[in-house]
Design goal:
Blueprint: H1 12-26, H2 31-38, H3 42-49, H4 57-67, H5 76-85, H6 94-101, E1 106-111, H7 122-134, H8 140-156, E2 164-170, H9 171-175, H10 181-195, E3 200-205, E4 219-223, E5 229-234, E6 239-242, H11 245-261, H12 265-279
Parallel strand pairs: 1-2, 2-3
Antiparallel strand pairs: 1-4, 4-5, 5-6
Helix pairs in contact: 1-5, 2-3, 4-5, 7-8, 10-12
Length: 280
């Protein structure tokens, strides 16, 4: 029988299937034997392992019982919950980007209209997700999980080998009122604190830059420990992760041009403080 190669980074569903196969093979079991233990068919086991079929909570609890994982952080029930209520609400490519972000040596961020995730306060992030719930694009549970994912992302950047984080924000990011005056004031204060950290750089690209601003939507660029690069861009409905150097390098070049054109960090902090004065 042909053995398909699995890519656990492709999606939470793929990671679930790869985890199931890995545990099965580590015990020397066939799909038929695991199917007998779990009281499912071998066809069902194969479909879950290869990401063709979504796992259910019943299936996951059965797997946890067989592999003695019930109640642990590595349980299949926990993975199933993430698939059904968490990660599936994120844009394609974003979960894999987050995984790379947590190990990156350098992080370059550009945003339009919203503060980048690593720089957001919990209250600012919660306000954005509450709006998504109100529009019924996600559930309240998914909103909570998105905020918790953001907090974990931010925590992963606080490590012995602290990454260099460079952020250029379109002026719309600091002028768009999110969560009300109190939340927005605290968010702008967070930006100023970010600018004071030794491993960061913050610039605001003013509206006056006009056509000289090279990006019209989110662009995130990562330099990994081995000096390879990853780019992540997204539209309203789709995220795209790119590791091809021929397409990533032009984005890096454009980002450097953006930094050259944008006001300095000191000038940007002055602009942020001016906006703060007009909020409260």
């Amino acid at each position: 029988m042909n053995r398909n190669e699995l890519n656990p980074d492709a999606s939470p569903q793929a990671a679930y299937g790869a985890h199931l196969r890995s545990l099965r093979e580590s015990r020397g079991w066939t799909q038929e034997h695991l199917a007998e233990l779990m009281e499912y068919s071998s066809v069902h086991i194969s479909a879950v392992e290869n990401g063709r079929k979504l796992p259910t909570f019943r299936f996951s609890r059965s797997a946890d019982c067989v592999f003695d994982l019930g109640g642990t952080a590595a349980s299949f029930e926990s993975e199933c919950r993430k698939i059904k209520h968490g990660s599936l609400s994120l844009l394609e490519g974003f979960p894999e980007y987050v995984k790379h972000e947590g190990h990156a040596a350098e992080i370059r961020l550009f945003e339009v209209g919203v503060i980048p995730g690593p720089l957001q306060t919990r209250e600012y992030a919660a306000a954005i997700e509450a709006s998504n719930v109100k529009r019924r694009s996600i559930t309240a549970e998914q909103a909570d999980e998105r905020v918790e994912l953001l907090i974990r992302r931010q925590a992963s950047l606080v490590r012995p080998n602290t990454p260099l984080v460079l952020a250029v924000l379109d002026e719309s990011c600091i002028r768009r009122l999110v969560g009300g005056p109190q939340v927005m004031d605290a968010q702008l204060e967070r930006l100023i604190a970010f600018a004071e950290e030794p491993n960061t750089s913050l610039q605001v690209a003013p509206f006056a830059m006009g056509e000289r601003r090279p990006f019209n939507r989110l662009v995130h660029l990562l330099t990994l420990a081995d000096r390879s690069m990853v780019a992540y861009v997204e539209s309203q409905t789709q995220g795209y992760l790119d590791r091809e150097i021929t397409s990533v390098l032009p984005l890096v070049k454009a980002y450097h041009q953006l930094q050259t054109e944008a006001p300095s960090q000191a000038e940007s902090v002055v602009m942020i403080n001016q906006v703060r004065k007009g909020i409260l």
